[in-house]
Write a structure and sequence with these properties.
It is a single chain. With 161 residues, the chain is mainly beta. The chain has a single domain (12-160), classed as Nucleic acid-binding proteins (OB fold (Dihydrolipoamide Acetyltransferase, E2P), Beta Barrel). The chain has 2 helices and 8 strands. The chain has helices at 64-73, 149-160; strands spanning 12-18, 23-26, 32-45, 51-63, 79-92, 98-118, 124-132, 137-140. The chain is extended and about 70 Å long. The N and C termini lie far apart (74 Å).
Length: 161
């Protein structure tokens, strides 16, 4: 029987709220890194048909410009959507014992808390920001991207009247 070759897939998506402020530091070579923990809630019905809630605490690590964005934009309670990959690491403590952790190495983080921004006409909009590991900033602030060109022109004409 031939050996079964499994695909090498390591992809995780989680949403939740930060349990405390992110911890930002730099490695010995100056690379920015941030760590934080996300609490993700799950609701389910128990055997007595009563709603219960379970909380899962997941560690997140982000590097480089993504780490700097997290440092600048996230605080305890901030809502995020993180996609990345699971990674495990071990280290030796001061007393000589070995400790280990499994965490998510973030590729992209969407900051879900809305912040207000004012456009050129003085109209205040809400925006949600999505940052990838290269630091690219994608602002999703309107539904305009879903409109056809004609619908967009009509909307702009109505705004000018």
């Amino acid at each position: 029987m031939p050996e079964l070759k499994l695909p090498e897939i390591n992809y995780v998506i989680i949403s939740g709220n930060l349990t405390k402020d992110p911890i930002f530091r730099r490695t010995a070579s100056g690379v920015p890194v941030v760590n934080f923990t996300v609490a993700s809630n799950r609701k389910f019905k128990d055997s007595g048909n009563q709603w219960q809630e379970d909380v899962c605490f997941v560690g997140i690590v982000a590097w480089n410009r993504l780490a700097e964005s997290c440092r600048d934009r996230l605080r305890k309670g901030s809502a995020v959507l993180v996609d990345g990959e699971l990674q495990s690491r071990t280290w030796r403590t001061d007393d000589g014992s070995t400790r280990g952790i499994v965490e998510i190495k973030a590729r992209r983080i969407q900051f879900l808390n809305k912040k207000h921004r004012t456009d050129f006409s003085g109209f205040e909009e809400e925006e949600s920001v999505f940052i990838d590991e290269d630091g690219a900033d994608y602002t999703e602030d309107t539904f305009d991207k879903f409109l056809t060109e004609d619908e967009s022109k009509l909307l702009k004409n109505e705004d000018n009247n």
